[in-house]
Design a protein that fits this description.
With 319 residues, this protein is of the alpha/beta class. 57% of the residues lie in helices and 8% in strands.
Length: 319
């Protein structure tokens, strides 16, 4: 569903007293976090304004800056990008206290799939026995990485992709690299992998600039280096996920063309010429194996295999 539809559904639950105590929000981290902020603002502001969030009051401003006293925000820590069990135990203590400014308390786990085993088991107990009017939001783009027992105790909110083609400036460049790197030449494959590394380096620089701007906007005067690096890494990981999603959709489009699908169902219609030229050289089996290669690439990156090696291996494997 779209973010607007998800918010309407959540608002209806709050208004009728049927809101769940746990929500698994599945989708790209950026839109998913924006949905959660909007839902939490509705909870805190809506208790005073007919279940509608004004977006301008003290509560809404506090939520946007992640400074609301009844909002408990948890993200992966340090360079390991793990949510440790110590953070979950601290969270349990925080949630045991009375709410400050609202009848609600909200707990948000960003990249919830990064819960360590001990942390996941500890969090499961918290989710099974929520304190008072506490609502949990678990944000992830990899729900299969969560404990099934955690997933089963949450209502799923699956955010859909936008129907329109994204305007990210790297899309045309990446489409060209995908077309040129899949022509059966090792030289072309490695050149394409190098090209994507340049796109990723730029994405990392953008992530750092965005985090600095976000801190300035929120009035954060100083943040320790380790926390800053962790937040930058979270932003970068979101951008890299978008790049991998584009690669997967591009190869999915190639498979659809091989199957004889019309242009109207393609995600990347602006790259139709390169897609058709690429698809003309593929069998159905090869097109399907290319999709599996990109899925393997994403899994390798999650295992912290160095990016240059992971991308080079993927491009050399593509038909």
């Amino acid at each position: 569903m779209t973010r607007e539809e998800a918010i309407e559904q959540f608002e209806r639950g709050v208004r009728t007293g049927r809101a769940g105590h746990g929500y698994l929000v599945v989708g790209p981290e950026g839109p998913a976090v924006e949905f959660v902020k909007q839902a939490v603002s509705l909870m805190f502001c809506g208790t005073k304004a007919g279940n509608k969030s004004c977006g301008e009051c003290r509560d809404c401003r506090w939520v946007e800056a992640l400074r609301h006293p009844d909002l408990h925000w948890v993200e992966p820590e340090k360079k390991s990008r793990i949510i440790p069990v110590e953070r979950i135990r601290a969270l349990q203590q925080e949630l045991s206290t009375t709410s400050f400014a609202s009848k609600w308390k909200a707990c948000v786990l960003v990249a919830a799939d990064r819960l360590g085993i001990s942390a996941a088991n500890a969090f499961l107990k918290t989710l099974e026995e929520p304190a008072g009017d506490t609502v949990f939001f678990l944000v992830t783009d990899s729900p299969h990485s969560l404990l099934p027992t955690i997933v089963s105790r949450c209502r799923k909110v699956i955010l859909s992709e936008s129907g329109a083609e994204s305007s990210e400036e790297w899309h045309d460049a990446l489409a060209g690299l995908l077309a040129s790197g899949s022509r059966g030449s090792a030289v072309a494959a490695l050149a394409a992998a190098d090209g994507i590394e340049e796109i990723l380096k730029k994405a990392r620089r953008e992530a750092e600039e965005e985090e600095k701007a976000a801190q300035e906007q929120a009035g954060v005067e100083e943040m320790d280096k380790e926390t800053f690096e962790a937040r930058v890494q979270a932003r970068y990981r979101q951008k890299r996920t978008a790049i991998l999603r584009f690669m997967l959709l591009w190869h999915r489009d190639a498979l659809l063309i091989v199957c004889g699908a019309g242009e109207g169902v393609l995600a990347n219609r602006s790259a139709i010429a390169g897609l058709k030229e690429h698809a003309s050289r593929l069998s159905y089996r090869q097109a399907l194996e290319n999709i599996q290669t990109i899925e393997k690439l994403a899994a390798n990156l999650e295992r912290n295999i160095p990016e240059p090696a992971a991308f080079a291996d993927a491009f050399l494997a593509l038909h």
